[in-house]
C-alpha cells in the first residue's frame, strides 16, 4: 500500500477538530497487519493530542471526526451519547426501491467474534432510509443511523431485502457491467470480467455536530473513485 498523505484526507480543520474523508481499505484504529497505516496513526503523525471520536469499518469510506484536544473530544463524545450527532451514509443497494424516510427498527445482537444478526435479545437499533436515485437494477439510498451498532446499516438493509452491493457477508451481490448493459455488453477475448466495485458500497456522506463554542459544524465528504465510477455506470444504463 502507498504511504498515505493525511493532509489530502482533510476536508475541514479548526482549533478543535480535524474532519477527514477516510479512503476505503484503511482501518480506523488497528489492523491485523501491524505494518498497514491506520487513521489513528496518521492523525498522531500529523501532530497534536488527537483522538478519534468514532470509527468506520475498514472498507467504508467517508467523513470521520478527530478531536485535537481533550475538551473537544469530551464535547463530541457527549453529543454521540445523547444521539445529537447527525450522520448520513450513502449506499448502493441491490434492487429498485423507493424508500421515503422508512424507519427500520430491529434489535441487533453481536455474539462471538463479528457474529452480528437481527435478534430480539439484541440492543435496540434504528435506521432511517431514504432513496436518492433509482437505476435499472439498483438504488442509491441515504441512511441515517439513530443508534450506532456494529454493522447496523449493512444488516438493516439486508433485513429489508436491499443488501449493499458487494456485501457478501449479508447477501449483497457484486455488480457487473454485463448485467447492467445486457446485450450491449461485449467482453474482450481471453479476459475475465471484473466487478464494477469489489468492496461494500457504503460511504459516510456527511456529519453534523456542535463545536465546543456551540457553533454548528456540517461537512459533506465526496465519494471516492470506486464509488463515483459505479454510480456513473449505473446512471448511464438505467
UniProtKB/TrEMBL annotation:
Pfam families: PseudoU_synth_2. This is RluA family pseudouridine synthase. The lineage of its organism: Bacteria, Pseudomonadati, Bacteroidota, Cytophagia, Cytophagales. One of its GO terms (biological process) is enzyme-directed rRNA pseudouridine synthesis. Belongs to the pseudouridine synthase RluA family. PANTHER family: MITOCHONDRIAL RNA PSEUDOURIDINE SYNTHASE, RNA PSEUDOURIDYLATE SYNTHASE DOMAIN-CONTAINING PROTEIN 1. InterPro entries: PsdUridine_synth_cat_dom_sf (IPR020103), PsdUridine_synth_RsuA/RluA (IPR006145), RluA_PseudoU_synthase (IPR050188). One of its GO terms (molecular function) is catalytic activity, acting on RNA. Residues 16-158 form the Pseudouridine synthase RsuA/RluA-like domain.
